[in-house]
Hints:
Elements: H1 2-14, H2 16-56, H3 67-79
Amino acid sequence: MSQEKVDRYKKEKANRKQNMRKQRTLKYVRRTVVSVIAVAFVAWVAYSAYDIHESNRQRVVAEVNYSAVTDYLNSMNQSE
Length: 80
């Protein structure tokens, strides 16, 4: 049993740098993925709040009176 532990320790020690590099890389990848997801979530919440705010605002409606143009066109047609 003791020899098995020693052999396992030697294997672990031989690959320690590679394992630590893998762990460090995975840690940064996890942080990046979580950060991107968090930013996307915050952006989605902000956009939704802005959209709700904009949909509740009253829209300005302008009415155009075309009667002067219509009268002018009618007078042009009558003069022909």
